[in-house]
Amino acid sequence: MENVLCLYKPVGLSPLGCIRLFQETNPSYQELTLSYAGRLDPMAEGLLLVLVGNENKQRAKYLSLKKTYQFRVVFGIRTDSYDKMGMPKLRYGKTLDKERKDMLKKYIPTLLGESIQEYPPYSSKTVNGKPLFYWAREGKISSIVRPSKKVTISSLTGHGLGTIPSQKLLSQVVSSVQSVDGLFRQQEIIGAWNRLLQNSKATFSVYTFTLTCSSGTYVRSLVNQFGEYLKTGAFALSIKRTRIGDFTLVNATHVG
To answer: Which residues of 210-221 are buried (b: 16+ CB within 10 A; e: fewer)?
Structure first.
């Protein structure tokens, strides 16, 4: 019996859903206390650390571990959730020109080290007893002060620029949103993406990154920063957590 489980959470499942699915196929863990150390959004996938039994008393130790992510960014569209599980808005609508590519290369090194990161509007951080996603859904996010926190980026590396045509992008977004379990505005979001892209012939720039950062850093908030800095808009097309401290995906158990 392991004290710490490394699970591979697929896109669409919540961390709790991932744990429940694991317990269904591993009966010996059904009567034990299992909880995750470090959540992943529904649109994110990858390494989920699950503490078993008494190991939950050591939660603070696991929560403090550095995280490594691989993620892809689409430029030209902004969403209200900063990832594909959000309402989209066209901001730029074409591939990045040379000037913006150069701006991005120069911007990346400035993000290293400590900074203050604001919580994304669609997150579970509470304000006045209600999660931020409540304020966002009610259209009241501007009426409150969004909390922020100190985060540290140890490394951020770009792996090259590519492109994605509108129809391929639309297919990927719709497939991912349809896979999500629970109520997250799925039909409204899919409808908005269809209206934006179903008749489009545009091609968008896609950049792949690897990030190592402190616990609690929101990758999608970082992605939104890219879009704001370049004035193009940007959203996270995919986010995969590949490492937590010394734990990696090599021996992770796939569920789902």
So the answer is: bbbbbbbbbbbb
Q: Is residue 101's pLDDT more than 90? A: yes
Q: Report how many domains make up the chain.
A: 2
Please list, in sequence order, all residues whose beta carbon lies within 8 angstroms of the beta carbon of residue 229, skipping any fewer than 6 positions away. 103, 104, 107
- Nearest of 56, 11, 18, 6 to residue 35 by alpha carbon: 56
Q: Give the tokens for residue 134.
A: 């409540």
Residue 174 sits in the same domain as residue 186: yes
Look over the chain and give the mean of its residue pLDDT values, rounded to a whole number: 95
Predicted pLDDT of residue 142: 92
Q: Are 155 and 206 contained in the same domain?
A: yes
**Residue 1 reports pLDDT greater than 90:** no
Query: Whose CA is closest to 212, among 67, 114, 106, 49?
Result: 67
Considering the domain architecture, whether residues 219 and 100 belong to the same structural domain is answered as yes
Its domain, for residue 203, covers: 67-244
DSSP 219: H
Pairing between β-strand 126-127 and β-strand 113-118 as defined by DSSP bridges: unpaired
Return d(Cα 232, Cα 77) in angstroms, integer: 7
Q: Are residues 125 and 192 in the same domain?
A: yes
Q: Which residues pair with 70 in a beta bridge?
A: 210, 240
